[in-house]
CinA-like protein
Amino acid sequence: MIIEMLSTGDEVLQGDIVDTNAAWAGQQLAERGLKFSRRQTVADDLATLVEVMDECCQRADWLLVNGGLGPTSDDLSAEAAGKLLGVPLELNQQWVANMQQWYRQKQREMPPSNLKQAMLPQGAELIDNPVGTACGFIITHHQCHVLFTPGVPSEFKHMLSHSWLPRLSDGDSTRVKRFFAFGLSESGLAQQLADIELPAGVRLGFRAARPSIEVKVFSQKVLTPEIKRVYELIRAQLKEQLFSEDNGNWAEFVQHKMIAKGLKLTCAESCTGGMLASQLVSVPGSSAYFERGFVTYTNQAKVQMLGVSSQLLEHYGAVSVEVAQAMAKGALAHSEADLALSITGIAGPDGGSDDKPVGTVCFALATAQSCFTQRLLLTGRTRQAIRETAAATALDMLRRYLNEQPIWGDYDLIRRIQTEQS
């Protein structure tokens, strides 16, 4: 299947707006084993739009046109579609009623200019947009189906998710199975799986999305014993580094396990500044297990909020396994939780030393009975990358604990300096 995308708008072409819609659509296709063969951006010029759309339709099975469905004079997509087909635009009364209802729900009066958004090419198939006023539609030209979509990201994503991607999936014969691992490089993972013999028609794809990495197995839709065997071989190779299948959201896994075990969690963060807690509560229902979080960025905050000894901070420094342990135990003492995670480190770009370079991060996982700590040197070119890897490493410690696996993982991208259990 040949799929192309055409983004419209001077503001996109000039770089005033970053085309996040195209990136998101590409990711959605990749998850289904599909891809764009071409992506183009065209200015707000009627003749150019018609010319480029005609060229695309002579090559593609599907053309996705994004933008130009608004109520202003530079929104030209519907008009271009009409000229492409050689048909007039007609006022779609059904969409007029939809827009009027949309404005009534917001207790606003619909401006007359919005009627332009109901002017569709004669014979076009209307595509609903319950989150906005831009009407999507589909036409066919040169046996190519052309879907016109709004440029507003929330409207674009809803329309693709509910009206277009299901159509592609129904006509697609590809199965995509995903495995998510942590602590491996893309090249290291590829090498680790290199000896797996793949049946005909089966291929592997790799996507590095720090701090995790994804392995995709593309195969035919029918799940055969040979394909199942590939899945089992990948599981056997990844072992404890495999943290999820099909869903790369660690927080969902943690939530499921914590609730199933009847456990409560708290966390104390320094260099991640609440990033860990934010990831945990991003999943609906997290209040069933996440008790509270502490962001103790300064030494004073560690002393006041967690009861960390000022002498301990002075002797070992804030970035030490001793302080990480005190933070985790202090979080337990000042909460109603059963488990506590703590993170303290140097995210950079400044603040490092020969003994503790930028990327040095200390972690602790504490229970009422024991505490596991480790000091790692995280790789990352930016402050944000180090913080993201630190939050992921803490989640990996928790995942391993909940799975009754060794707490300290074997990472090829992270250097372990020190581990302790008390």
Observations:
- Residues 383-402 form the longest helix (20 residues).
- The chain has 14 helices and 18 strands.
- The chain has three domains: 3-170, 174-245, 250-421.
